[in-house]
Amino acid sequence: MAATLFAKFVPKHGNGHHIYGWLPLTQTVRHGSKAVTRHRKPLHILKQKLLAVTKYIPPPQPFPRGAYPSESDHNQEDNGLMLLQKKDLKKIFEDYKMIAVVQNNCGNAEDMVILKHRLHKHGISVKFFPNKVTRPFLINSIYCNMAPLFIGPTVLLVSKEPKVKEMLTSLRASPQMTLLGACIDDTLLSVQGIVSYSKLPAMTVVQGELVSGLTMLTSHTASLLQRHPAHLSSLLQQYIKQQNPNNGTEASPTAEQAT
Amino acid sequence: MAAPCKATVVLKAVKKIAVQFCPFESNTRSTREFLALVGSEKARATNINCQVVSTVKHDKSEPVVDVTYVDGEQLVMKGANLTCSEMMSAFQSRCTNKDPQTKAAAKK
């Protein structure tokens, strides 16, 4: 498949004779099959055989690799960044009243930015921490029951005021964020707990209801006493009359028995 | 550890994926990783009509993944004792079986 390249086509003799010859400027180049192709070039049979013979056969595993947790490297030193992140976590748990744990499956940053903006309007901030830092921190603190929540891609939503209803509406707008649980006022809540927390009325309303329920009897008595004393005396006389027929009927059989 | 061999998860033949788990249990790791892979934007972009629904419960129930395909078949995977890679391979093998034409065309 050799071909010759005409580098220069030069007449050897003059114009009259018209004889064209070949100067040593011609070059013979082997071409036809390129080394670098756009498609996957089929391997030469020898190369194929070599690869088949030298193929890697892994040693037989008794169980798959991810089935059991690894025993080694449980105690690794905390590097500076991890210490800093643990300090941040401690501050967060002290400062913020509501800490919600959400699993995010969103891949693009645009959705995340929109969600952050929506939550920022209500004073909720979004925090990212690696699980390797949060899990040991939580296990060593009083929040050890939150530790199993932190598996996979997780995000913390923290806020100083427990604005649960707004958080739920914003999360419902983005379908790929899954609410896992929350720690509100040092109380660990599941999803149902969070929903019922959001349905609770405000503190002042609850206190008002409690106070009114407790003072119902006393307020009734107070209102009775505030009425006209003639009304009160008539009520008391009626009460005595009600007692008297009972006393009258009870007194006579005892008298009969006595006699 | 548990990422699938293919870069993206193709959901063309899937109608709905319902994942339910209880996050306070310790056997939910594989289910949560499966959800993260399937619910990512890349996977969802392959089929916009496919719904990925996740339910979080607190009743110590087992983690379950319920996949409904376009032709009516259902695949139920109980993720308590499965690894993520096993679930992914089972799921993807069925997906490729259901959707051979587009796959073969893409490969060729």
UniProtKB/TrEMBL annotation, chain A:
Looking up CDD domains in the UniProt record yields:
Ribosomal_L10_P0
List keywords of the entry alphabetically: Ribonucleoprotein, Ribosomal protein
Entries under Pfam families matching the protein: Ribosomal_L10
Does Ribosomal protein appear among the keywords? yes
| GO annotation, cellular component aspect | ribonucleoprotein complex; ribosome
Query: Please, which domain of life does this record's source organism belong to?
Result: Eukaryota
User: So what family is this one in?
Assistant: Belongs to the universal ribosomal protein uL10 family.
Q: What is this protein called?
A: Large ribosomal subunit protein uL10m
UniProtKB/TrEMBL annotation, chain B:
Keyword annotations for this protein, in alphabetical order, are: Mitochondrion, Ribonucleoprotein, Ribosomal protein, Transit peptide
* Signal sequence, start to end: none
GO CC annotations, alphabetized:
mitochondrial large ribosomal subunit
Ribonucleoprotein among the record's keywords?
yes
Q: What is its main location?
A: mitochondrion
Subcellular location(s): the record lists: Mitochondrion
InterPro entries (UniProt xref): mtLSU_mL53 (IPR052473), Ribosomal_mL53 (IPR019716)
* Family to which the UniProt record says this protein belongs: Belongs to the mitochondrion-specific ribosomal protein mL53 family.
The protein depicted here goes by the name: Large ribosomal subunit protein mL53
Which organism does this record belong to? Nothobranchius furzeri
What is the gene called?
A: MRPL53
